[in-house]
TrEMBL record, chain A:
A Pfam short name: BPD_transp_1_N
Source species: Paenibacillus abyssi
PANTHER family found in the cross-reference section: DIPEPTIDE TRANSPORT SYSTEM PERMEASE PROTEIN DPPB-RELATED (PTHR43163:SF6)
Transmembrane annotation, as ranges: 12-32, 103-128, 140-163, 175-195, 234-259, 279-305
Keywords: Cell membrane, Ion transport, Membrane, Nickel, Nickel transport, Transmembrane, Transmembrane helix, Transport
Alphabetical list of InterPro entries matching this protein: BPD_transp_1_N, MetI-like, MetI-like_sf, Opp2B
Family designation: Belongs to the binding-protein-dependent transport system permease family. OppBC subfamily.
Descriptive protein name: Nickel import system permease protein NikB
From TrEMBL, chain B:
Organism: Paenibacillus abyssi
CC terms in the record's Gene Ontology section: plasma membrane
Subunit field text: The complex is composed of two ATP-binding proteins (NikD and NikE), two transmembrane proteins (NikB and NikC) and a solute-binding protein (NikA).
Catalytic activity: Ni(2+)(out) + ATP + H2O = Ni(2+)(in) + ADP + phosphate + H(+)
Entry's EC annotation: 7.2.2.11
Name of this chain's protein: Nickel import system ATP-binding protein NikD
Location(s), subcellular: Cell membrane
Its membrane topology: Peripheral membrane protein
Primary location class: membrane
SUPFAM superfamilies for this protein: P-loop containing nucleoside triphosphate hydrolases
Automatic annotation (TrEMBL), chain C:
Membrane-spanning segments: 21-40, 83-106, 211-229, 249-271
Membrane topology term: Multi-pass membrane protein
Pfam (any one): BPD_transp_1
Source organism of the structure: Paenibacillus abyssi
Location of the protein in the cell: Cell membrane
Taxonomic path: Bacteria, Bacillati, Bacillota, Bacilli, Bacillales
Family recorded in the similarity comment: Belongs to the binding-protein-dependent transport system permease family. OppBC subfamily.
Coiled-coil stretches: none
Family annotation (InterPro entries): ABC_transport_permease, BP-dependent_transpt_permease, MetI-like, MetI-like_sf
Domain ABC transmembrane type-1 intervals: 79-268
Keywords: Cell membrane, Membrane, Transmembrane, Transmembrane helix, Transport
Record has Transmembrane as a keyword: yes
Name the UniProt record assigns to this protein: Nickel ABC transporter permease subunit NikC
UniProt-listed Gene3D superfamilies: MetI-like
Amino acid sequence: MRRILSIVASRLLQLLIMVSVLSFVTFGLMKFTPGDPIRDLLKVDDVIATKADEEKLKKEYGFDQPILVQYGHWILNVMQFDLGESIISKRPVMEMILSRLPATIALTIGGMVVLFLIAIPFGTLGAAYEARWPDFISRWLAMLGASIPSFWLGLLLIYFFSLKLNLLPVMGKGTLAHFVLPSITLGIAMAPMYIRLLRERLISTLQSSYIEAARARGLSKERILFFHALRGSLIPLITMFGLSIGSLLGGITVIEILFSWPGMGELIVNSVKQRDYPVIQGYILIVGFLVVITNLIVDLLYLVVNPQIKQGKESV
Amino acid sequence: MVKNSLISIQDLRITSKSAEKVLVSNVNLEIEKGEIVGLIGESGSGKSLTARAVMRLVSPDMKVSGKILYKGTDLLTTTPREHRHILGRKIGMIFQDYRGSFTPFIKIGNQMIETIRTHDKMSGNEAKNIALTVLEEMGLESRRVYNSYSFQLSGGQVQRAAIAMSLALKPDLIICDEMTTALDVMNSERVLHYIDYIRQNTGCSILMITHDLTLAYKRTDRIYVMSQGEIVEEGLPEQIRCHHKHPYTKKLCSCLLSLPEAESLQQKRVYLV
Amino acid sequence: MVPVLMKDITFKLLRDPTMRTGIFLAVFLVGGTVLGGMLVPHDPFQINMNNRLQGASFEHWLGTDQLGRDVFSRIVYGAKLTIGLSIFAIMIAVIIGVPIGLFTGFIGGKIDAFLMRIVDGILSFPDFILAIAIAGMLGPNLTNVILAIVLVRWIVYARVVRGLVLAEKEKEYVLVSKVSFSSTFKTIRMHLLPQVIPDIIVMAAIDVGKVILLISAFSYIGIGAQPPIPEWGAMLNEGRTYFQVVPSLMIYPGLAIMLIVLCCNLLGDGLKNYFDIRKRRG
């Protein structure tokens, strides 16, 4: 119980530091940015910008006040779960982002399924046949996968499966079929890291003394691999997921744009193009929150999966 | 040569492929049925490697030649399948590192059932009964150990559970590789007591690999002395202790600070017979 | 002496198959770019509407795009641009990050602990999204993307170097240097810097590939290089609507990205083997 509390406390501290640093950076950048959001806004609305209009809008968004006051104001609102409203659509930022969250989570889950379907067989193959041809293939696949741009991979998949073979719809969201290509793209983009990690962990597990003992008991090769070695090597993958949730949220952005998937990534890119500052700031905050929460869940999950840590013994 | 030997290692030679180094050479070793044989030598002398060759646990980087005959079959040339069948079923092994005796995240009971059912076709319940019986025989709280992970038990308990596991399959030979080195004195004595117990009840042979001379004198019927990958001397414990010929054995014995009294040695042998 | 040493190093490098493949790929890519640029000197920006969406020909090796521009010339131009910018970005990140890592790691204390708390806070945040946000705040164009990448990447170098210094500074030779009244600066330069250089080289080689991926991804989603700049990701974005008719517009820029990133990864892994760096960095 004390372990759980200390984990939660350290993650909360991380969240606090992260959010304050990031909000400070984004606020600072906004202040020193050469473009002026108010001018941009006036340009967008196609209104003839008069000095009076500009002043009025600045007042409306509080941009006429000193930056620290603006910052303090924003932080106070954040604490009440109010992220302000979009300059463009005038809708509350919180609502805008949260309405996109389910689509992103769905794609993440789809991507994870594909990821594990790829990473577990290839990682296992690589370790079980270390330095022989299956290992060679798995290493080269990981190398190629790490080098291929995910959006290009997505384009190729669209070209072959949607345009040439006419098997799957190109873009959008709705049916299960729309779900397939984005998930595959995301899964392949994430897989190389996991293949490498699983292969390395499995190789070192296969040399450990308990595997030797299992062999000395006459258990079959397959049984040792799947029941004794693989199980222990899968646990680090959970940690890896926690560590890579950030790069996943980044990578998913490109894939959402590519497939016109209505998730958070699509929202942020469009907001960046329109320089919709409140949305960008709110998005950063929510991503930070998601990263920390995921890591917290991973920490707690780790506690459950690995009985040794539950006992307070972290050796072996 | 001994005729009725259970296992006979002939001209065993192990070389490292990459370093082109001879690790073990000219090893000839016989174990009769029901015998406790000691294999002593300092660490790095090749005694563990010899045992590993029997279990086919040497790394693929090493080349093994010679013969390891188990009841006439050469263990170096059998198919992996046949070899696996002999492992565990006929030859059990207990390791020095007790933390590595069982897979850490699978309960001991489940691993015992897994092993028993790998070798003998039987239902899970039957296997469980056997597992509980042998754990009981090793003086353990059978139900608790059965439901534990290895790290929840003490070193001595884990080693006794490992012995129980081999016992469950009634093997002909148990190889104990420095099994008590990582344990304290009390636990060592207890574990060794159960090894004696097994031998008396099942008549199996035991190959005791150790660098502990006292232990070898007290517990074994015959001793092989190994140094730098070769067997330099062989004989009864008294011979090795008092009438050794090889300079290495002499050095080894002179290093020993306190030898057990001759009487206690005598007593031990009476007890064993 | 020197020629012998060079020969030794070359031999050792070429013995590793990963390194060998990487070097051959690099030679092939650089050679192709230089030779091709000399043989077919088209202006990558020259629009020719009479010559749109042509297939491959002797004049246009990889055909022309939707505005009649020569695809090969654009890819070659894009190669110089993207590779140049990535190397530049990483160099700046190294120049900022490494000294900071060396000094904070060596001096330690409260400032170090405080800085690292902040760094860890930032590092657990996705760098791609931070770069999006920075680029978004500053305005979506190529310069700001590079700026954003530098702002994010230097932290990683500082963190890694600091870690290496912490492990290294308790070792005997550094302590000896410390007690023999060498200045802090001299100790760092003489003893610690040489220790971290191999790690930096390996990391930088792999990072150049990562940055190329990042720049092209940014350009593809429309917040990096803007048309008509022939950045590969921007080319893919521009030609998006014509893929069904002329798939080569999609194939070549993507292939170019993949090959160059593969080359960086191979060289990075090869160098890792060469310097025998294992598990010092996750």
